[in-house]
Amino acid sequence: MAKPSMPLEYALQFRGRFPDPGPWKLGSTKPINTKSYVGVDNAPKQYVSRQRRRPYAFNVMVVGESGLGKTTFINTLFHSVLKEQKSRPLESTKTVEINAKSYDLTESGVHLRLSVIDTPGFGDRMNRYEDLNPIIEYIDTQNQNYLQQEQNRNPRPYFKDSRVHLLLYFISPTGKRIKDLDIFSLSKLSGKVNIIPVIAKSDTLTADEKIVFKNAIMKRLEKEDIKIYPYNYCDDRASISHLETHIPFAVVGCNTLVEVNGKRIRGRAHRWGIIDVENEQHSDFIHLRELIMSVTKSRNLNDLVISTNDIHYNSFRTTYLQQNDTKIKSVEAFEGDSGRHQNSTEEERLKNTYASMLKNKEEELKKRNDDLLKNAEESIKSTIKEKESIEEEIKKLDEQLKILE
């Protein structure tokens, strides 16, 4: 009995979506042993060789208050003087700047095109809410540029990827609790990019203070449902179990080398001793570097790029296309697939579903942001009131001194 033919429309709409297409599936393959050398085993080598020649793009953004050692840490992470320390004049602190610089790093024949996006001016003002706008706008713009390349379908071997793959958020080492303004910033950014929280200048905290501060930060992040990497983007929790106790990472950055017992190490000398950047008893730097750079574990640079594409970029893409009333397309850039077309009924159902989910999420975020804003305003009012009280006391003391004179 002859197999029924597959309708062409059905085949085009659902190809690749189901592993077993029923009676239209291909027949079983027949193994063949070649009688002489063909060179099939060279295919993986050729792929690796081609990938080595193509620069690997990785974009990292650093966000945090001025003076937390962001520039020094980036230089320490990549063992290169990528960025120079620059002081900013007072008039330049009125706005947040977005400075993106690219560097080509080569190691063992592998080319890494690293882009470091700095955000000088962030947190220098009392009202940090406006400081977030340029950062969010930059992230969205890079996603939009990538989407434009997909829609153009230019016949190029690969897209230029300027999307932010990782955001290192530097937290001031207060030793007690994370600031409400930091929570507000993290809540706004966590849905757009992979975030790794970092406690800056951790050498200013004792070992006990680090533990207390880390626990306080994690409890607050869980309470506010703020997603961080890799906690909320990991399929294999066992692979990061040895790193979970170190999140958020308490780090120390240093570009200088000091000699200890005849060995030169990257560290800083103090009156009470020497800070070794790569000593896990002094800093979590090696654990953070392992999380980002290690290829022996499941977490590495490529995983950050994939999660950016599959989670954050796809979320932006869906929302952007809905808001602009554009026909939804499914383009998988990493596979080079041009996408699969769905019928209008299914497309309309998906649009309604996404719109409903988006509306609920916006209401939830609005309520959370209103609560954070209220707490921040109360904190500011309390600070102003305390300042006025102190000024009043100083005024009274001045009057008493005048009487005594």
Task: Describe this protein's structure.
Residues 54-323 form the Septin-type G domain. Residues 355-400 form a coiled coil. With 405 residues, the chain is α/β, with parallel strands linked by helices. It has a domain at 47-300: 3-Layer(aba) Sandwich (Rossmann fold). Helix content is 42%, strand content 14%. The protein has ten helices and nine strands. The chain has helices at 8-14, 42-53, 70-77, 132-152, 180-189, 207-223, 241-244, 285-293, 301-323, 344-404, and strands spanning 56-63, 99-107, 110-118, 166-171, 195-199, 249-250, 257-260, 263-270, 273-276. The strands form two sheets. It has a six-stranded mixed β-sheet, with helices on both faces. The protein has a three-stranded antiparallel β-sheet with strand order 7-8-9, with no helix packed on it. Helix 5 (180-189) links the parallel strand 4 and strand 5. The radius of gyration is 27 Å and the shape is globular. The model is unreliable at 87-93 and 326-342 (pLDDT under 50).
What are the salient characteristics of this protein?
405 residues; alpha/beta; Rossmann fold; 6-stranded mixed beta sheet; 3-stranded antiparallel beta sheet; 9 strands; 14% strand; globular
